Amino acid sequence: MVDLNGQYRKIQPEVDAAMRQVLEQSDFIRGQAVADFEQALAEYTRSRHVVTCASGTDALQLALMALELQPGDEVITVPFTFVSTVEVIALLGLRPVFVDVCPDTFNMDVTKIEAAITERTKAILPVHLFGQCADMEAVLQIAHRHHLYVIEDACQALGAQVTFSDGSLLQAGTMGHIGCTSFFPTKNLGCYGDGGAVFTQDDTLAARIRSMANHGMSQKYYYDQVGINSRLDTLQAAVLQVKLPRLGTYITARQQAAHYYQEALADCPGVELPSTTPFSTHTYHQYTIRLAPALRDVVKQKLAEADIPTMVYYPCPLHQQAAYRHLAPWQEAFPVSESLAKRVLSLPMHTELTPEQLQYITSTLRSILS
User: Fold this and answer.
1) Beta strand pairing call for 49-53 and 196-200
2) The pLDDT value given to residue 327
3) Which CATH number is correct for 247-369, 3.90.1150.10, 3.30.565.10, 3.50.50.60, 3.40.50.300?
4) What is the model's pTM?
5) In this structure, are residues 275 and 288 in contact, taking their beta carbons and an 8 Å threshold?
6) Number of neighbours of residue 319 by Cβ within 10 angstroms
7) How many CB atoms lie within 10 A of CB 68?
8) C-alpha angle 149/154/155, rounded to 5°?
9) Which residue positions in the chain have pLDDT lower than 70?
């Protein structure tokens, strides 16, 4: 599904030198490379504040903690996403309220948000799934009308951009009150372990998040609030500092691979291709097709027999998961999410895909379905 070693080999001298510098300085926790990377990422995203942390999951938890929500408060989000989105809501004693997703973009169906708002609703948490942003202009307008916070789960979409009706262009993670991203190795900008970051334009929120990520400290050994231990390792920051200037190139490579898939599979029987929106660019963290439920697992197995890896993101929506069913037992079914879980199949997508590999993948898939 990914070729992390091939990507590393292309930048090996710079990565090795950056990591060696950290080893020589031995500033492994909150070292200079962390501060340098935060500044560079803030400039790239045009975000006033960037606070790095230990993972995308921690970024989401820190965002919710910083808003000082109370147990029982409701957060509107989607059931078709990676577990972290809802996991952190549950861990803080909050209540997830789900709305379904759109069948073609996989992102939050914004037409369903207002019906889910109650007097306990405090925030909307849209997910920019697979690398394309949700309809943030609509989300922000709804949040403004109802005085709600907006937290962006941009863990799969760093580098995507949204064009608003007034012509303004904003980066994924920088549009809401708080945005979150992940640097998991397979992400468009990935480190060589775990890592994450929080974005905000708000000075007060930024100071609170930075403190909370470091045990709630404002100065050493003085704790103003309950926090957690969530810091980006200096070694990981050094890797990210090398890779950040290449993020545009990485995204272009993914977009080119996606374009190949779109062209080669345009008339492939039984395949529904992913859709794009006019307001958001797509960074293609994943390239996800849809097949009939009766075909999906058969196709997956036959591709595996041809040495073509695939993944199902995600095989069971969160409202049906054993760990989370009890959190929202009153909520109705979510037919789009439930249908997608039976139909989606993600094809290999990474920066090192060659034309020969893409041709082999698409011709094999066409052969299976012909």
Assistant:
1) antiparallel
2) 76
3) 3.90.1150.10
4) 0.96
5) no
6) 23
7) 10
8) 130
9) 328-331
According to CATH, where is 3.40.640.10 located in the chain?
4-99+107-245
Q: Which residues of 219-251 are buried (b: 16+ CB within 10 A; e: fewer)?
A: eeeeeeeebbebbbbbbbbbbbbbbbebbeebb
Instruction: Give the pLDDT of residue 332.
Output: 73
Class of domain 4-99+107-245 (CATH, top level): alpha beta
How does pLDDT run across 222-260, given as a tens digit for each residue? 999 999 999 999 999 999 999 999 999 999 999 999 999
Q: Are 291 and 270 in contact (CB under 8 A)?
A: yes
Indicate where the chain has its CATH 3.90.1150.10 domain(s): 247-369
Model confidence pLDDT, tens digit, residues 342-358:
999 999 999 999 999 99
Q: Is the peptide bond before 314 cis (omega within 30 degrees of 0)?
A: yes
Determine contact, residues 99/112, Cβ cutoff 8 Å.
yes
At 331 the pLDDT is 64
Tokens of 264: 């080669």
Residue type, 347: L
275 φ/ψ sector (left φ>0, alpha ψ -120 to 50, else beta):
beta
**Which helix (DSSP H) or strand (DSSP E) does residue 18 occupy?**
helix 4-25
